[in-house]
Amino acid sequence: MGAGIFVLVVMAAIGTFLLIRAIPSLTSNESNVLTTQNFDPDNNDWGIAALAYGTLVSSIIALILAVPVAIGIALFISHYAPRRLAVILAYVVDLLAAVPSVIFGLWGLRFLSEHILPIERWINDWFGWIPVFGGSVNSASSLFTAGVVLAIMILPIIAAVCREVFLQVPRAHEEAALALGATRWEMIRTAVLPFGRPGIISATMLGLGRALGETIAIALILSPSYAINASVLEIGGSTFAANIALRFGEIAETGRSALIASGLVLFLITLLVNMGARAVIARRKEFSGASA
């Protein structure tokens, strides 16, 4: 109980600090914070619309790409791969999670950008009639590229957590499904995935938290711009964390207060996402006593 109370106190202290430091810029701002795309706090003209859009879109792209692959990796390691191969693969996945984010950023900037640009152009040629894939593709410094790099970064986190959850499925459930004539995939679909659904949600939220707060990799890949663009393939965009990292050292006091205010918004978004995940997990309590 003491540890739990301490965590709550720390979170409350962080939120209070952010709120106090954000008040000066919020009170002096002449624009609507929620709808303004521009970010020029030194002239009292700033908002979080473009930053929130870039943060959420890049994170959603990362989840769409990473979650199915991570679940497949976890299932292969836990239920398909031979024991020796499973141990090696699990070690490699865990090792990938330890790679610093700046390495992913440099890799995305120097290697991935060159090789993903033809793919983005192909997507634009064939699916450009969809607004999210429309526009002109002249550079790989886009939210799509940032989302791909984020997907690779959160993949090992989601895969590792899902793997441990799948290994906790009661052996009796699996054997019962197989005894009824189910194939291995049918056993996984009827026994493993339902039991592991709360764990999959938790792993996804952990990955989302990493994606929402990622800084250096996004700062290296994106060409900063404060405009909401419907297409994820066009150049430009920014996120809360990357914008704070790039501008904190060169901005005036009012601007720093605005950056802290944007950090407060990111803090609230993260809290809301995790609270929503906990609410979903709470609805799956029927599986919590499955191992009894």
Automatic annotation (TrEMBL):
Q: Does the keyword Transmembrane helix apply?
A: yes
How does the UniProt record describe the way this protein sits in the membrane? Multi-pass membrane protein
Which protein, by its recorded name, is this? Phosphate transport system permease protein
Q: Which SUPFAM superfamilies match?
A: MetI-like
Keyword annotations for this protein, in alphabetical order, are:
Cell membrane, Membrane, Phosphate transport, Transmembrane, Transmembrane helix, Transport
Spell out the InterPro entries in the cross-references.
Answer: MetI-like (IPR000515), MetI-like_sf (IPR035906), Phosphate_PstC (IPR011864), Phosphate_Transport_Permease (IPR051124)
Entry's family note: Belongs to the binding-protein-dependent transport system permease family. CysTW subfamily.
Give TM regions. 46-76, 88-109, 129-162, 258-277
Q: In terms of one coarse class, where is the protein primarily found?
A: membrane
Read off the PROSITE patterns from this record: ABC_TM1
Alphabetical list of Pfam families matching this protein: BPD_transp_1
Cellular localization per UniProt: Cell membrane
In what residue span(s) does the ABC transmembrane type-1 domain sit?
Answer: 52-277
Gene name, Swiss-Prot/TrEMBL: pstC
Q: What does this protein do?
A: Part of the binding-protein-dependent transport system for phosphate; probably responsible for the translocation of the substrate across the membrane.
